Amino acid sequence: MKTMTCKELGGACDLEFHANTFEEIAEMSKKHGMEMFQKGDEAHLEAMNKMKDLMQSPDAMTKWMENKRKEFDAKPNGE
Q: Could you tell me which of 53, 48, 13, 17 has the C-alpha nearest to residue 34?
């Protein structure tokens, strides 16, 4: 199991996500982002706007996802 924070995944806080695969951790991050969006959390809304801008370029988004996957893969396995 590996750990990444919301901030490491492009978010705005230090909440930790724990998962065995990058896909699992990305889904957890997405769910957390939706919860913060519904709460109107300013810091997360700002982070989401940055991601929205990134998504305008498919190449940039693909490269960002590849880099995040590499960061996840490089993390040590925890308990």
A: 48
Domain boundaries of the chain, sorted by first residue: 2-74
Identity of the amino acid at 57: S
pLDDT per residue of the chain (79 residues) written in tens, 0 to 9 = 999 999 999 999 999 999 999 999 999 999 999 999 999 999 999 999 998 888 898 899 899 999 999 999 999 998 5
User: Which is nearest to 65 in space by CA: 18, 15, 25, 33?
Assistant: 25
Query: Per the structure block, which two tokens stand in for 72?
Result: 């996840």
* CA-based torsion, 12, 14, 17, 23: positive or negative: positive
Long-range interactions of 21-24: CB distance < 8 A, separation 24+: 22/68, 22/69, 22/72, 22/73
CA angle 38, 9, 79 (to 5 degrees): 105
